[in-house]
Amino acid sequence: MPIKIPDSLPARATLEGENIFVMTEYRAIHQDMRPLNLLILNLMPTKIVTETQLLRKLSNTPLQIQVELLHTSSHVSQNTDADHLSSFYTTFDQIRDRKYDGMIITGAPVENLDFTDVDYWGELCEIMEWTKTHVHSTLHICWGAQAGLYYHYGIPKYSLPKKLFGVFPHTIIKKQSPLFRGFDDEFYVPHSRYTENRLEDVLARPELELLAVSKEAGVFAVKSEDNRRFFITGHPEYDPDTLANEYFRDVKKGLRIDVPAHYFPNDDPYQAPIVRWRSAAQLFYTNWLNYYVYQTTPYDITQI
């Protein structure tokens, strides 16, 4: 949240020059406030786990947020009880005439498929097109980021020689970006994917800004210049045991899988994981909500 200071305080110019968010008395007096309307399109098969992870991050702010959960109607979930979906989720046809301050599009375990081979690709494209006029700011995560970069900007994804799996160090390219305010010079994010976006493809699009990268994990955070779309290739919302559960699941299936990098002490999967990303994850979601949703969305939501 911003600090409120007198309009003429000398520190104002210095703080604003450092890209510190300050709010003058005039703006504070004239600022209208209401709950944020946030939509989560949950494409993960384990929907309850994913919704819990995201809600945990979104809830730890001073902001009042009204969250709705969305699932695709063109795909039948095999891992989530139908009663849960009917009780807590909505479909696109039910909300297509509404507008939202923010939206999250999650990842999905379909990255080895061509985009057009995903059974709900047509519906997802319709939803992503709809966000242009009905959502103030949309955050795309992992495969959802790859899908968004491909749909909006034609940026392809590429197969990796093996699964990128672990918790990797990252550095910030745009150090003054509000999205990374409060971050250390190096921060960690979990990744679990078989495909990547390449740096040269992102840099070739002038309407995109590269915000953060990893030497090992590659492109991490990208946004559109108008701040309407954000793309992250990792999972800052992951629980401490998420990668461990994925690892042991694949081992049990007899799949060839490396121990997650920078995760277990001494790479020993029978030791408790080291959590390196929790604080950065909380900052990330708080910053997105505050600077790119709450502070810039119209008070009259119909004006989005």
Task: Walk me through the structure.
The protein has helices at 11-17, 25-30, 47-59, 82-88, 92-95, 121-134, 143-153, 199-203, 242-252, 278-294, and strands at residues 3-5, 22-24, 36-41, 65-70, 89-90, 100-105, 135-141, 158-172, 186-196, 208-214, 218-224, 229-232. By secondary structure, the protein is an alpha/beta fold. The strands form 2 sheets. Strands 5-4-3-6-7-12-11-10-8-9 form a 10-stranded mixed beta sheet, sandwiched between helices. Strands 1-2 form a two-stranded parallel ribbon. Strand 11 and strand 12 (229-232) form a beta hairpin.
Brief characterization of the structure:
With 304 residues, the chain is an alpha/beta fold. Helices cover 31% and strands 25% of the residues.
Low-confidence stretches: none
Widest sheet: strand order?
5-4-3-6-7-12-11-10-8-9
Residue-averaged pLDDT? 91
Strand content: 25-35%
Order of helices and strands: EHEHEHEHEHEHEHEEHEEEHH
Helical amount among residues, as a percent range?
25-40%
Number of strands: 12
Radius of gyration: 20 Å
